[in-house]
Amino acid sequence: MHSTTNTSIDSTAPLLPAADKSPQPYEVVRFNALKHGILSRYTVLSHENHADYESLVNSLMDEHLPAGATEQHLIEELASVIWRKRRVLQAEGATINKGLKESARSAKTVIPAAAPFEMGLSGEGTDIRDLMDLKPEEVTDSHRTARHDLEATNKAAAILSKGGDRAYDRALRTLTPDTREWWQSYVDEEEYPADATGLATFISEHVTPFVYQQEKESRHHGAIVNQALGEGLQAYKLEKLSRYETHLDRKFERTLAMLIKLKDLRSTRAA
Fold first, then answer.
1. Are 251 and 84 spatial neighbours (Cβ–Cβ below 8 Å)?
2. pLDDT exceeds cutoff 60 at 107
3. Vertex 56, ends 52 and 58: CA angle to 5°?
């Protein structure tokens, strides 16, 4: 008597689902790029906005529609390069601002250099930031005022030089109100005697150099501003940044070319 073993498969048993080997939908790839992207962990620094970087990656994903991990990685590389180029621009701006701050503190060298053939342009007591803030109409008014002060000062000095009755009073009336107030402060401090000799000395030592300086600074305002900006630029300090930017540009071009070639190859195979 032979016993038979039933080896038939129960048709009612549930079957295991077959592995889905089809490519992941693009939306899944797009999500994974943000959730699991290796580069994003190191590209975005602690003080930077991760949401901005994710938005950049999303934009590139939407543009290039990656299929697979390799294309996704290349797109992350592109985002990383763009993100670093943004830092280069920030560093460039910071370097220029630092240079401008230094030039703004160097009136005694910047202002004479702006008009190298102009005698008496010393920059003494001048704040370049005040000159930089002037609007065109204010520059015009400043030059007009400086010319008026200069004419009044020269006229007062001529009256005192000629002498005669009431020369002191006539010269004092010739000066501008601001200059008279300035003179009175010296008299109050007993720096000069309130007479023709004292006033003549005051004009020679203080007023004339000041009004000449004011007139020349207003006349050469544009050149002074350009000199300050030029010295603040300090182009030699931007050379390293420029080289790094060139490196990033080349890396971007290579990565983009690789991505396009890979997509073309995939399209050819699909055809």
1. no
2. yes
3. 115
| pTM attached to this predicted model | 0.64
Q: How many angstroms separate the CA atoms of 15 and 131, rounded?
A: 85
Q: What is the DSSP letter of 238?
A: G
What does the pLDDT look like over 119-134, one tens digit per residue? 888 888 899 999 999 9
Gap between the Cα atoms of 218 and 209, Å rounded: 14
Domain boundaries, the chain: 26-34+48-103+236-270, 119-219
Which position has the token pair 């000066």?
175
CA-based end-to-end distance of the chain? 63
User: Comparing 34 with 150, which gets the higher pLDDT?
Assistant: 150
- 174-209 burial by CB neighbour count: b if 16+ within 10 A, else e? bbbeebeeebeebeeeeebeeebebbbebbeebbbe
Distance CA 183, CA 154 (A): 15
Could you give the count of Cα atoms lying within 13 Å of 177 in the half-sphere of its Cβ? 0
Six token digits for residue 39: 């580069």
pLDDT, greater one: 267 or 109: 109
Taking the C-alpha atoms of residue 81 and residue 114, their distance in angstroms, rounded to an integer, is 40
CA dihedral 62, 64, 70, 72 (to 10 degrees): -20
pLDDT in tens, 1-46: 444 444 443 444 443 344 444 445 445 444 454 444 555 677 888 8
CB atoms under 10 Å from CB of 210, counted, come to: 19
Per the listing, tokens 């930089």 go with: 132
Select from 231, 233, 225, 232 the least CA-distant residue to 128: 225
Helix, strand, or coil (residue 83): helix
Q: Residues, the chain, total?
A: 271
